[in-house]
Amino acid sequence: YCCFESKENLEPALAHIHDLNPEVNLEVIDNRDNIKNPVDFNILIGDYKFINKMGSLPDIESDNFTPVFVYAAAPWQGTLRLCKNTDTFHDFLLKLNRKQEINKSVSEENHFSRLGMSMSYAFMGTLSVIEVIKARINIGNTLNDIICFDLLKSVFSDDLFQLSNETNFNWEIKDKLSRAKALIIGTGGLGCPAALALAKAGIGTIGLIDYDDVDLSNLNRQVLHSTSKIGMKKVESAKETLNKINPAINVDIYPAAFSRENAINIINKYDIIIDGLDNIPTRYLLNDACFFAEKPLIEAGALAFYGQVTTIIPGKGPCYRCIFKEHSKQNAAPGCSEVGVLGPVPGTMGVLEAVEAIKRIIGMESDLEAGLLMYDSLETDFNLIKINKDKDCALCGDHPTIHELGDYTFVCKDKASS
Predict the structure, then answer these.
(1) Nearest-CA neighbor of 3 among 37, 49, 41, 50?
(2) What's the distance, CA 190 to chain centroid?
(3) 322-341 pLDDT, tens per residue?
(4) E strand or H helix at 192, and its extent?
(5) Are the C-beta atoms of 226 and 20 separated by less than 8 Å?
(6) What CA dihedral angle connects 396, 371, 116 and 79, to 10 degrees?
(7) Which end of the chain has fewer CB atoms < 10 Å from its terminal CB, N or C?
(8) What's the rounded mean pLDDT across residues 257-268?
């Protein structure tokens, strides 16, 4: 059941959902007063204002288990809570009322705030779906109380009051974004949500490189593709979706594998590079190419229930080789094809990649420039690890031995990592 505040764009939204999954049954409620009793739902997800109009909530500790996830969003910030009953929901409302900035309306004149709201909702969407899956199939530890986040400062906490008050900037960033050129290597589980978020942000040019075709097995996590595009080149499918979302942006596509032969030539056309790859060898290639081309690289990965993201600035902080050292046992590591990945996990990491790219484009510093943010979806845990540059790194260390792009076949090609 979907409740829409307005019927504007309703039909295209429903058509898109059906194209993603033709088997889904949708019932649209155009008046929240007509919504069924909450106990008739297996899962309930909604904004705190919406949930407040529902009246009493079901007791999820009863036999008829009903997860009720309530969220609140502000520019670049947000919070998600599992409310076990009406009392816990009212307690959540009291905390929100005390945290006044959560309830601020977004100024339509402030592009930074509107962009921040878009990023908050995108991140909240993937996060809430992960928690719903965990609750329904009984894996990991269901969110017991609350998770709060500040995307600008990479703060993740169970305390709403740890979030900074400094989120409503008046910077002129629209021109910076519209002039920016971002290249995304791979249009899969990471690249799709990153591209989607950047398109909504108004990035002027997005480059997409991928040799693969859309397959049915991709659709649980690769949000730019759908059933009607099965068999289409992924870059063509992604471009079509992105242009529908934001016709003003320019989308360059490269229906080819990212290789030693084309890496530098393609990378040099863009301001910032985003890793959406699914294998370790090509990640080393991308890292080295960005180092030689002096291009900032937003790097992320996802496997099973876990994810990671970092920002690599050549010549400033650690590179990918500093963080993940090359060794002979890497070809024994299980890949995504063997272990699998929970669909929304790469979505969460892809949104974080887009946020990091935006921060870099508009001139904001990031703790992830010398840190690795680790995400454990089973525990709803975000952990920022500080990383030092390796003085013995073969690429960026004091005495480098890598001076050009080389051979990257030391790991089996089918050993995926995201």
Answers:
(1) 50
(2) 7
(3) 999 876 555 545 555 567 88
(4) helix 191-201
(5) yes
(6) 160
(7) N
(8) 95
